[in-house]
Amino acid sequence: MVQWAMKGMSLRDEDQAREILWPRGLVCNWGRAARGIPVDKISERLTPESIRTHVDGFSTIDPLTKKKFFEESPYISLSSGTVERDSVNRANHIYTARRTAMQFGSRFGESDTAYIFTCWVLVAPRMAAEIYGVAEEVRNLTVYPSYSDFADQGEIAAKLHIPANQIERCEKWVRKAPREAYEPAWVVKNEGRFIPPERLSSVRDLL
């Protein structure tokens, strides 16, 4: 299954954003820390236990690295949006992908600038933690039924690296003062390099 997703990031400047758009792509924290992904270590890093830690124990100490898990996580957190069912009020609440991406891109309002990347990934129909060619649909309760405090983030967890040719565009959002709303400053499309997912089948859009 192909799934559209968004990634919100707080970056140094526009040049760093453009480098992600082409040629670097989105790289996991582990790959950035190691200045490349250690291929011989992938199997010990991508496990059912590590994906659960990535989701619900992001700041816990990783026994492999002896550091906080997020510092060298092999996963890339994306959002595709999700729906929360409110049985008391008989209503569904939609949490959009852009909402979550903006929260992380702005560091939850601490930064006046946020960058949002729109990309697509292949999603496994069931848990496939050890297979790095597919992302994990953490938001799907039939695949990940355990309770999570972060369910409203609508997370899709990609693994290791998202190639630049799967990133459609980058948006820069800014605000002029802490209490003002963020506004779009520019959009840069990955013209001539982006490969649309329609070359594959079963494409699902964002919420």
Automatic annotation (TrEMBL):
This is Uncharacterized protein.
